[in-house]
């Protein structure tokens, strides 16, 4: 279960329009003309700053090589800055570029520490606090969660009075404690944030309050807060945000078991997305709306909107002709439904008219024989009541048959989809023939999955093994997984053998295929994945890791050691850094080493006594503790631990964990 309020805080950082890009290019050309002139010195604060501006502009306009070149020039020019205040000012700009633009997190860490030390010497408390905040962000991005909170807390020491920096530090601490399940501390920091509310964006404070409501299980109050957010977004005609907030409101009301209001909110959000042609937000709304119908056993509407979701997903990968045919089919279905409704209304009108005629007839007879009329009316009424009851029984029987048929169609469709998806996964025989000892713990959230595992043997006798988490889960995720697998196959068919090269080519194929989704920027979908190239002859392991890590447990003198291969922080798909190539790597492995790849479903599963995430660190410790066991025992341990942890809570995501013994 993802934290709703945290999702609200995620705003695009680098997205800009074509006109903005043109402006950036003009600025870049102007700066290049200045620094490339023959009389340009290229030293000191001004030069370092101009080189850094070129670094940033080159990056956002798609020239990473030029960006790297001028970053080196900027750092070299800064070495001649004599005045400490100017040097500190440069360090602040430099660390912002390294973290926000270039993803040079290790280099950023060095200059963040330098800036903090220099800021302390100059007694510049505001800058020190700001740099501690950047340090916290940087540590969070690189997975050092244990140090992130400490950095934010250190920053607070330097801004004791209310200010924008203090408010943002408090906000980050509040957000992080709610995410980690430390609700008491989260509420403490929320109270502190409210004291500095004039220094923080309204939507940011609202999202933190939403985390609090969620942690308390006060979903109705959360829904009321989201209603305020809808009003604010609607006042500035931000319909994307309005419809997204309706999706969140729907989810909260479902959690509150207020299903009727949840459906009303979902339908309102759906109407906005349909009117404004907001396909991405329509997807979000449908994902929340369909479970609301299921909760009240409204299987007819669940089927109707499931089909709408299915059509929305198919539209992403279909060509224009297929889309047009789907639209025609949909219109014909609407016409047929309208005709049935019209026919039903006409029948109702005829029945009503007949009733009126009977009433007039009986009234006329009553003038002459009042007593006889009373007796006759009682008889007629009883007969009509019996007829109505019989008709209601017939309608209920027909509806029951319709629902059963709809369920059968849905189940048959999903079963068929599951068989299709399994045909794309690596077969047991392929894995048994090429991996000496292994296991796969594969547990989809639904019958079909966004997670997948795929493999192939190369001509060089090396064996490729992919473990991936596609965008979405269920039917949408399954469709995306097939697109991802076929894109991988296409890259290998071209003769590519290096993991990084395969990911780079696969990413290009995915982006090209999703350009047809109808949006101006193209679909930002793809996969977080790892790819291993295993050479048993040389005990060499080549790899590439996109967002997901690779772990190797090695046994030395009876002691187990965990070797972590950190992922590159970008998916295989459209992304702000999709022009940055994957690098990958190579490592020598030893006989007996256990290699693990995984998606994030196990670590993100809520459960236990406090309904918290399992989290990455406990998962690492658990993997190390079972690495010495036979493959089948490891798989059973994973399955049993996952089931015990989840308990009565629902599974939140697909799970795929692969273990290979060298």
Can you walk me through this structure?
The strands form three sheets. Strands 2, 3, 4, 5, 8 and 9 form a six-stranded antiparallel beta sheet that branches. Strands 1-13-10-6-7 form a five-stranded antiparallel beta sheet, covered by helices on one side. Among the domains are: 21-82, no CATH class; 320-421; 426-661, PPM-type phosphatase domain (Phosphatase 2c, domain 1, 4-Layer Sandwich), CATH 3.60.40. The longest helix has 55 residues, at 370-424. Helices cover 64% and strands 11% of the residues. A hairpin with a 4-residue loop joins strand 4 and strand 5 (540-546). It has helices at 4-9, 18-35, 44-60, 64-78, 84-100, 105-121, 125-141, 145-156, 164-179, 183-195, 202-216, 219-235, 239-255, 259-276, 279-295, 299-317, 320-368, 370-424, 428-434, 474-493, 499-514, 616-626, 631-646; strands at residues 437-443, 451-457, 463-470, 526-535, 540-546, 550-556, 559-565, 572-573, 585-588, 594-598, 606-607, 612-613, 655-661. With 662 residues, the chain is an alpha+beta fold. The chain has 23 helices and 13 strands. The model is unreliable at 1-18 and 355-379 (pLDDT under 50). Helix 5 packs parallel to helix 7, helix 13 (239-255) runs parallel beside helix 15 (279-295) and helix 15 (279-295) runs antiparallel to helix 16.
């Amino acid at each position: 279960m993802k934290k709703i309020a945290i999702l609200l805080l995620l705003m695009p950082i680098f997205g800009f329009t074509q006109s903005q890009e043109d402006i950036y290019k003009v600025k870049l050309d102007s700066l290049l003309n200045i620094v490339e002139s023959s009389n340009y010195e290229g030293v000191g604060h001004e030069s370092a700053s101009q080189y850094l501006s070129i670094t940033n502009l080159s990056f956002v306009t798609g020239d990473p090589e030029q960006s790297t070149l001028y970053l080196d020039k900027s750092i070299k020019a800064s070495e001649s800055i004599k005045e400490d205040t100017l040097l500190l000012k440069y360090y602040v700009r430099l660390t912002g570029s390294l973290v926000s633009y270039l993803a040079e997190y290790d280099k950023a860490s060095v200059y963040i520490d330098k800036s903090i030390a220099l800021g302390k010497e100059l007694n510049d408390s505001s800058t020190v606090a700001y740099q501690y905040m950047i340090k916290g962000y940087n540590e969070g991005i690189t997975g050092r969660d244990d140090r992130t909170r400490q950095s934010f807390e250190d920053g607070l020491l330097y801004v004791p009075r209310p200010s924008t920096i203090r408010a943002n530090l408090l906000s980050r601490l509040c957000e992080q404690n709610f995410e980690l399940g430390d609700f008491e501390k989260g509420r403490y920091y929320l109270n502190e944030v409210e004291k500095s509310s004039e220094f923080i964006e309204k939507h940011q404070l609202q999202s933190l309050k939403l985390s609090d409501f969620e942690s308390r299980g006060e979903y109705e109050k959360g829904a009321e807060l989201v209603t305020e957010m809808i009003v604010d977004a609607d006042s500035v005609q931000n319909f994307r945000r309005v419809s997204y907030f309706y999706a969140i409101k729907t989810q909260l009301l479902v959690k509150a078991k207020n299903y009727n209001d949840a459906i009303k909110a979902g339908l309102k959000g759906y109407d906005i997305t349909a009117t404004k042609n907001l396909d991405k937000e329509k997807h979000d709304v449908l994902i929340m709306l369909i479970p609301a119908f299921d909760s009240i056993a409204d299987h007819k509407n669940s089927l109707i909107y499931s089909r709408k979701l299915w059509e929305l997903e198919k539209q992403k990968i279909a060509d224009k002709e297929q889309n047009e045919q789907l639209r025609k089919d949909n219109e014909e279905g609407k016409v047929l439904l309208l005709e049935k409704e019209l026919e039903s209304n006409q029948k109702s009108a005829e029945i009503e008219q007949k009733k009126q005629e009977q009433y007039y007839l009986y009234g006329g007879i009553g003038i002459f024989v009042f007593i006889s009329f009373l007796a006759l009316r009682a008889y007629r009424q009883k007969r009509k009541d019996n007829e109505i009851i019989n008709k209601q029984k017939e309608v209920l029987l027909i509806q029951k048959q319709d629902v059963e048929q709809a369920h059968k169609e849905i189940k048959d469709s999903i079963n068929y989809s599951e068989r299709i998806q399994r045909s794309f996964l690596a077969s047991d025989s392929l894995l048994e023939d090429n991996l000496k000892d292994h296991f796969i713990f594969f547990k989809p959230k639904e019958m079909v999955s966004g997670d997948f595992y795929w493999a192939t043997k190369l001509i060089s006798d090396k064996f490729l093994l992919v473990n991936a988490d596609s965008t979405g889960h269920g039917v949408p995720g399954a469709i995306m997984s097939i697109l991802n697998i076929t894109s991988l196959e296409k890259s290998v068919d071209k003769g590519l053998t290096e993991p990084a090269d395969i990911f780079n080519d696969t990413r290009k194929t995915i982006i090209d295929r999703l350009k047809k989704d109808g949006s101006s920027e193209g679909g930002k979908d793809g996969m977080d994945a790892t790819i291993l190239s295993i050479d048993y002859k040389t005990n060499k392991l080549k790899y590439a890791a996109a967002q997901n890590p690779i772990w190797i447990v090695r046994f030395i003198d009876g002691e187990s050691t965990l070797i972590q291969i950190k992922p590159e922080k970008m998916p295989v798909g459209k992304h702000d850094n999709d022009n940055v190539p994957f690098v990958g790597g190579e490592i020598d492995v030893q006989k007996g080493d256990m290699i693990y790849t995984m998606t994030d479903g196990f670590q993100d599963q809520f459960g236990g006594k406090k309904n918290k995430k399992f989290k990455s660190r406990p998962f690492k410790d658990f993997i190390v503790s079972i690495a010495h066991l036979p493959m089948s025992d490891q798989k059973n341990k994973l399955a049993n631990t996952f089931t015990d942890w989840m308990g009565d809570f629902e599974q939140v995501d697909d799970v795929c964990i692969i273990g290979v013994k060298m």
